[in-house]
Amino acid sequence: MCNPVRFDGKDFLEKLEGKKIMFIGDSVSLNHYESLLCLLHAAVPDARITTQTSNSTNTVTFEDHGVSISVFQTHYLVDIEQEQIGRVLKLESIKDGNTWKDMDVLVFNTWLWWYRRGPKQPWDYVQEGQSILKDMDRMVAFQKGLTTWAKWVDSDVDTSKTTVIFQGISPFHYQ
């Protein structure tokens, strides 16, 4: 029999006092961020909070505990840049990493957008090294993007002070 421990928002805030948590990814990350905020608000409805929004980041800080919870929305983790030829998905570039690396907990996810085509695809070309392609095998592109992300974690994140979590592929949630 499975008896999971009930989530205790007050205990969560006490254990993570002074910490910064960031969810980075697509709508799955946004959903997890919003769910955690709802759980914490239910546990401490009178908590003093501040909110901050800048560029692709939203942050809620629980002032009494100094716990900041942020979400950074990015579909691919790697960059999409507007160039003269159009929007280019750069499989070997993570410029937003400077926004992420000083957190205490990083929760990453990416997957659902890698197979988007047509008007829902937010890029026109894919760049790998010096090669710019109109398209490529999406599983190969995903693997290359994740390899870039893993190299970034290895080189830019101090894993002795930052916990890094990668959420696996979630079930498809759009029809």
Spatial sequence of strands, sheet with the most strands: 2-3-4-1-7-10
Mean pLDDT score, rounded?
94
The secondary structure category is: alpha/beta
Overall outline? elongated
Instruction: Determine the number of helices (DSSP H or I, runs of at least 4 residues).
Output: 4
Strand content: 25-35%
What's the β-strand tally?
A: 10
The helix content, as a percent range, equals 25-40%
Poorly predicted regions are none
Q: Largest sheet, described in full?
A: 6 strands, mixed
Tally of separate domains: 1
What is the chain-wise order of helices and strands?
HEHEEEEEHEEEHE
From the N-terminal CA to the C-terminal CA, the straight-line distance is 35 Å
Rg value: 18 Å
Organism: Populus alba x Populus x berolinensis
Pfam family, one: PC-Esterase
InterPro entries: TBL (IPR029962), TBL_C (IPR026057)
GO molecular function, one term: O-acetyltransferase activity
Keywords:
4 helices; six-stranded mixed sheet; elongated; TBL; TBL_C; O-acetyltransferase activity; Trichome birefringence-like C-terminal domain-containing protein; alpha/beta
